[in-house]
Design a protein that fits this description.
Layout lengths: L3 H6 L3 H17 L26 E7 L5 E6 L5 H6 L1 E3 L5 E6 L1 E3 L6 E4 L6 E6 L25 E4 L4 E2 L1 E5 L4 E3 L3 E4 L2 E8 L2 E8 L8 H14 L7 E7 L9 E4 L2 E5 L2 H4 L8 H10 L10 H17 L5 H13 L17 H20 L6 H11 L4 H12 L4 H8 L16 H32 L1
Zinc ion binds next to helix 6 and helix 7.
Amino acid sequence: MPSNRDRLIGASPRSILFILVLLVAQTAFGPAVTATPDEHDPSECVETLSSEPGGVPVTVERGPVENSVTLSVDTTENQSVLDSLWIELPPGATLKSKTGFERHSSDFLIYETVEDAQRYSLTYTFEENGTTNANVVDSKLRPFEGENEWAVAPLPVDYHGISAFHAPSNAAIGQRTVYFGDYSETTATNGCHRIRLVVSEAVDLNRNRSAILDSLQYTDRHLGGQRYDEVTIFVSPENFSAGYAGVARSADIVVSGTGKTLGESDGRWHIWLHEYIHTRQSYHPTGDFEWWTEASANYLSIRMGYRSGYLSAGRYNRILSHYGENKTGDAVLANKSTWRHLTPYNRGVLALARLDTALRGDTNGSVTVAAVFNATERDQPETHSEFMALLEKRSGNQYNEWSDDYIRGTTAGELKMKAETLPDYTVGIVVAVLLLLVGLYFEREDTDSEEASDAE
Ligand SMILES: [Zn+2]
């Protein structure tokens, strides 16, 4: 006669083992989601530096006063190139001194060379812990004394007659940014695309660098958009003045390397991916589609983090829940005047998580928000209705209800994200309970067979 325990289990040892194998497989390999196809040619990249053949190299050094940069040109270079050389100071910079240059006009900070000068150099200052203006990287230069001197400073964006900027040791140069100070660099290459991680020696980085680069490379393979030949991530030792964790300027990213912003608990772990995705955005819609820029960067940073294996399923779900708890009330994504603090980041993540789930369900995993991102980069919709048309074209389905609820409505204000996959600890508990039950079952089987042999 079967015991109560048998009825409780209600399954053969074989089927229990089968369930166990499935659960272990899910824990090990994650949920079965169709991969987003690669949508770009690995040999196609946009040139990061507008270097000119025949131009002269410019040396970048720390200037003689605090918060300053000196640019200098070797006078032995080709005279005709020197004569046509001009440099516009980076946005937010102020001229401190010049030799061999004169100002082009009173309207712009453009400096042209003077004929037959003995020396050519420009020194400009920049704001300490500077502005949040999108054109100026937050900067900070410590006094010259002391061991941990460092600075993140802006480089000229517009110029003529320059082949490259180069720096002596203890400086890393990006497209529009220079880091002065001791640092270490780790690089990952994928076809023509190179990702540099420049970490200040003053940063105690609590993340594995190759894991960060792996997640960025995964994102590179699965996202289209603008793809620079080189993206440089500068990890700065201090927080930014405005309280945000990172900034992307064209092909350069500066992230704060302090424990607070790179920690796991504050939900901003994915700043690397977030800013990296900004480097792939070649345009910035306004009006009722302005929400897309930050929403897509934020959602895809989490999604790519999960898909690349950088984030476990449990953490992925906890981050989505974190955004679900950051309610933005009556704010409407399509109407910027209703936005509160971080509305496109929070509400946008929830809206796109919902859309992604619907898209994957409707298309058997073949269309995702990542694929839609790639399509927006190709077609560049400027309004929300153009985006909806693109969505229909790409997926073959209409998502008007989603749009009414999450983009033109306030539904997401009451939304609590439902976990898409089982959190890690849930899987762990289920496995542990099942193992316990299997153990009990086989213990009983052993007892039964002993009893049977006794009876013989
Ligand atoms: Zn952003």
